[in-house]
Automatic annotation (TrEMBL):
Pfam families: VitK2_biosynth. The gene is mqnA. InterPro entries: Menaquinone_biosynth, MqnA. It catalyses: chorismate = 3-[(1-carboxyvinyl)-oxy]benzoate + H2O. Belongs to the MqnA/MqnD family. MqnA subfamily. Keywords: Lyase, Menaquinone biosynthesis. It comes from the Bacteria. GO terms for molecular function: hydro-lyase activity. This is Chorismate dehydratase. Its EC number is 4.2.1.151. One of its GO terms (biological process) is menaquinone biosynthetic process. Catalyzes the dehydration of chorismate into 3-[(1-carboxyvinyl)oxy]benzoate, a step in the biosynthesis of menaquinone (MK, vitamin K2). Pathway: Quinol/quinone metabolism; menaquinone biosynthesis.
């Protein structure tokens, strides 16, 4: 009599930002063996470390800090070749006049903090105290002359007073000529070992979902966000989702490795990790 093996449910982390919609929209079908848990990037990283979730888009720095804990899902990432639109430094002063003044930084993403630290130190040759804060961008700018904001909060922010706005991935591209990878899709190694077939199936399903949704962004925006082309936010959201780089191709991997090298130089990670993918585990 054949033995029946019960497949464990995969626990999928979901970042609650617009930039993940091309992955998640209509990703799950009836009967799929998975459950989801929503949070912002720092929460997702923590839950992956604790084993509360199995697969998620984690910050690139989280992978760099704990490479032995994860395998990467091939072909998918969250990044930008030039403008990210949602990882922004807002400042009351131009960058040249900020000098060593403190900067308020979002507590939602550690990768963006390290990217900013690298750019300020290596490109602009300045050193700043970072003040981790939550709250609105206006409240952060009251606490410091500049602030780093990410996600939808940064994308939709409109200041009532004049302020400078700098896109970190644009700074990165101007300096390195490479795209920047903010997040990689990863699976905990234990989950991969326990449920390899389900992990590979989810990885394939994720890539199919991404390609389908990138080819039908108007449908995604209308159904998921209830926005029509007549809505004020429609053009901004469409442009934003169109300009993101969602593929972990060779160029994106080169940019990711360069980020790891620079993060290592400022002691944000111990060493430059290899990029290990689930198909290498399967082999």
């Amino acid at each position: 009599m054949p033995t029946t093996v019960e497949t464990k449910k995969l626990k999928i982390g979901r970042i609650s930002y617009l930039n993940t919609l091309p992955f998640y929209f209509e990703l799950f079908q009836t009967g799929d063996v998975c459950v989801t848990q929503n949070g912002y990037p720092a929460q997702i990283n923590q839950w992956m470390q604790e084993g509360a979730i199995d697969i998620a888009p984690i910050s690139s720095l989280e992978y760099g800090r704990h490479p032995d804990a994860y395998y990467l899902l091939p072909g998918v990432s969250i990044g930008a070749r030039r403008h990210s639109g949602s990882v922004l430094l807002f400042s009351r002063e131009p960058i040249e006049r900020l000098k060593s003044q403190p900067i308020a930084v979002s507590e939602e993403s550690y990768s963006s903090q390290i990217l900013l630290k690298i750019l300020l130190a290596k490109r602009f040759h300045s050193d700043h105290q970072f003040i981790p804060l939550s709250g609105t961008i206006d409240s952060m700018l009251e606490a410091a002359p500049a602030c780093l904001a990410i996600g939808d909060k940064a994308l939709f922010y409109r200041s009532s007073n004049f302020c400078y706005k700098y896109d970190l991935s644009e700074w990165w591209y101007e300096w390195t000529g490479l795209p920047f990878c903010f997040a990689v899709w990863a699976v905990r190694r234990e989950a991969c070992q326990e449920n390899a077939a389900a992990v590979r199936s989810f990885s394939d399903q994720l890539k199919v979902s991404l390609e389908r949704n990138l080819n039908q962004l108007p449908v995604l925006i209308e159904k998921e966000l209830n926005l029509s082309i007549a809505d004020e936010k429609y053009a901004l959201v469409y442009s934003y989702l169109s300009q993101l780089s969602n593929h972990l191709n060779e160029e994106m991997q080169t940019g990711l490795k360069r980020f790891f090298e620079l993060a290592c130089e400022i002691n944000a990670i111990e060493k430059v990790p290899p990029l290990e993918f689930i198909q290498e585990f399967a082999a």
